Amino acid sequence: MADMWAFRDAVSGWAAGGPGEPAGELAVRLGLRTAVLLEGPSDLAAVEGLAARRGRDLAAEGVCVVPMGGAMSVGRYAGLLGPPGLGLRLRGLCDEGEQSFYDRGLARAGAPPGGFFVCVADLEDELIRALGTARVEEIIQAEGDLRAWQTFLHQPAQQGRPRHRQLRRFLGTKKGRKIRYGSLLVEALDPERVPAPLDELLASV
Question: Is the entire prediction scored with pTM above 0.90?
């Protein structure tokens, strides 16, 4: 696992303008064949959490899950890891509102279409809808965040908003909260109610 984190760090440095040799050498050492491109670390937590629940070791299977630090980086990462770069097969998630941007970036990198699975708003929204708002609020209470949640609900901007949108916004109001809840929401899922984009992504790698 340490080598996989080293690979992610090497890719981040490469994307920022550094050398590509460290990433290339690690990809060979790790036997990588697929890179899963995700917007950020909360998506990473959810994908790896569900894989673990299903008894899968993605690293041992030659699959690296890479948080890109934002959707706007997809063209850059696809170029580095896909056909023009390391030649890995590309998979990932994208939000519906950014799908056209992903399509253009992947096309420029020469990546075959169809490997990215679309969330309506984002992955957190998919997980909240799969669990139901009442179950998510139970998780918030169990995690000791009930007071923060109640304070959040009293903010003027939240008055009259649908509950699932309030929950989605709440998860992004504190540094690290989306990452923590990415794992927690996946752990709470009924196996039969895994959101389709997440289920289809894991089935494809």
Answer: yes
